[in-house]
Amino acid sequence: MLAGDLYIADDPDLAAASKRAILLAHRYGEVYATDPDAARPILEELIGSIAPDAHIRPPLYVDYGAHITIGPGTFANYGLTALDVAPITIGADVQIGPNVQLLTPTHPVDPDMRRAKLEAAEPIVIGDNVWLGGGVIVLAGVTIGENSVIGAGAVVTRDIPAGVVAVGNPAKVIRHI
Ligand SMILES: CC(=O)SCCNC(=O)CCNC(=O)[C@H](O)C(C)(C)COP(=O)(O)OP(=O)(O)OC[C@H]1O[C@@H](n2cnc3c(N)ncnc32)[C@H](O)[C@@H]1OP(=O)(O)O
């Protein structure tokens, strides 16, 4: 699953891990509403690796949480969806706008394979000091280079180099910084 091979998502261990993640993410949001400090251990239990000063505003939606790494100084605004069937690596000092989606899973385009419930997933890497504007969607297998800015609403289908501004659907580089 983590290696990008096709698989059928009916494994009971995966279902249990997903249920655990749903419960922890829900609890994180509930506790955060009245006491963000008390909510912190719940976030640390949910996320595979998160720097002590990284901050995520709930609601947060993940598949498993365990395959997510978040570096120091990173901030994610409300409504991050991080589907971590494959690893999601978020660097240091990353700014994530509201309702961003990081989508590592894919389904086959072939209709028969899709009906057979085959799935796959590819890792996503967000480099240091990247800013993802509100509503950005990053697709499976994409790497965004450090210091780059992705404009609000962009759909990132291909790798983005370091030090650029990219906007639109599909996201295209409009200038170097
Ligand atoms: C962590 C947080 O919570 S962040 C809070 C949420 N805030 C946001 O999501 C804001 C995100 N910001 C943006 O999308 C901004 O538009 C930026 C950062 C991309 C602007 O970057 P700049 O390089 O300054 O671009 P600039 O404003 O000069 O626009 C350049 C061109 O791109 C277009 N453009 C700018 N942003 C976008 C966008 N999101 N989608 C499509 N086109 C865009 C402009 O219309 C302009 O086009 P034109 O030349 O035809 O007039």
TrEMBL record:
Protein species of origin: Microtetraspora fusca
Alphabetized UniProt keyword annotations: Acyltransferase, Repeat, Transferase
Pfam families with a match to the protein in the record: Hexapep, Mac
Listed InterPro entries: Hexapep, Hexapep_transf_CS, LacA-like, Mac_dom, Trimer_LpxA-like_sf
Listed Gene3D superfamilies: Hexapeptide repeat proteins
Coiled coil: none
Keyword Transmembrane annotated: no
Residue ranges of domain Maltose/galactoside acetyltransferase in the record: 1-52
Main EC class the enzyme belongs to: transferase
GO MF, one example: acyltransferase activity
Family affiliation: Belongs to the transferase hexapeptide repeat family.
The enzyme's E.C. designation: 2.3.1.-
SMART domains, sorted: Mac
Name by which UniProt lists this protein: Acetyltransferase
